[in-house]
Amino acid sequence: MNEQEFWRDLQKLIYQSAKISEIYQTQWERLIQIRDSPSLSTQLIIQTVCYGAVYLTQKAHLNFPAIRPNIGLSGNQQLALEMALSNSPIALISGSGATGKTRIVNSLANEAIEHFQRVLILTHHSASLTKYGNLTTYPILLSKQQDYSQWVIDQLAQPQMDYLPLHLLPDIELAKLRSPVKLEIWLPIIQNKSYLELTELLKPEFPHLQQPRIQLLAYHLKKLEPLLKQQLNLSRAYNNLSEQAVREIANQIRENRQVPVMGTVAEFMQSENQFLWETNFDFIIVEESHYLTWIELMLLSGLCKKLVLFGEVIRNYSLQDSQETLFFNRFPKCFKWLKYHLLPTYVYPLTEQFRVHSEIANLVYPCICDDWVHTQSLNINYQLPQTIQRLIWQDVPHDQVGRRMIEFIQTLDIQLISQIGIITFSIEQRDYIKDILPQDYDKIFVDTVAQWAGNEREIIMINCAANPQDIPIEEMNITLTRGKDYLFLFGDYNLWKKLNSPIQELLNQSKLYKERLIVLS
User: Residue 512: is its pLDDT beyond 60?
Assistant: First the structure.
């Protein structure tokens, strides 16, 4: 294949996958611009496809000084970060769940923003973006329907000041005292009263809280006094600005190179905002790149100095868009193809996982990826009295899955609520579980697979009341790597083993522990 054939086949793919003629025309016009003035990232992809693995002598000239990650990274992750910040036009970083891809993206984005690089961060699942909410004060969020300048104005009117020290968890009670009106009353009290006096004064304001909870709130307020004072000063300063001044500030923030743009790949591709498509980003960072199509890859490659792809090489990937197979039959998925065909200079595999207990990892990882993954030692010192196993298939009929899950949850210590998560493969099952959860347990995080991307819990329960043939392998991989200490799967074992299950290899393992009946007491 030569370059002319490459663009011809890509045009055919766009035409075949376009829903309406306008989409085809817009995408092809943008690709024509990229073809006529290709970035280094685009050149590297095309030359690799057409001529085999190549090395570009031209550099992206990002020229970062010594790298100082904002969070602790392992040696393996540090090397991946250095590749991502190097002057190469592409860095492809692969790793299964729990290998630290999100931590590397956070460090990469922070480093780039600190050095005035314009950054675009894209994911496949919108839930994955929550990990990057505090990169800067007001990131441009593609999911926001209103005008960005107006959104910034709204934020300026009510600064959130949510950047708590890492050792302090989000506190919903604390947020109730952070409005300008409340701060006017409470800040002098926080400044002038002792910790014990403040605790007593908070009791009438929060009559629903127990004494230990009020003491914790008082501690947080005393600790965060400088931040609360700054928040009040910002609110007062805003109120003294003219409307024109507020607009000018909003526009300056929008044009600031240190303001990243964040959203899903779908949101970016569907955006009609010319500001985005005409921006020459220094970095485009794509997490969950294994979902990218060739069209999306080529469009993104032409908009940046450096393209950094994070993703997984998934076994037996289910092609949701059959048209994708029409583009270069040899290259059904671009991320996987690039991993195995780019020179090692541009590719780095993450081989250590830091989340999943070794007893779970030893069964799960050989079934979901081809790469060897080492489990770092984890300090997990507790054991559920209900079981000596950490990965269990609870064998129950489909129509009893929800009820059995609730019965099992009720055998657990209620103090574990915050550590429990339930994953479902359908909205119907999610809503059913939420409806039947006892009130004492209604704070357990229950949601579908898409909302679990980037999240984790100590104890994960998977609702397998679904047809295994309808579940993509990539979704199953997410569910199997969300649990840190325990993983329980509830479903009809024989049905899942009989049908074409995405975890057939796991089900066939002799070491997989199965229980016919859940222990209730």
Answer: yes
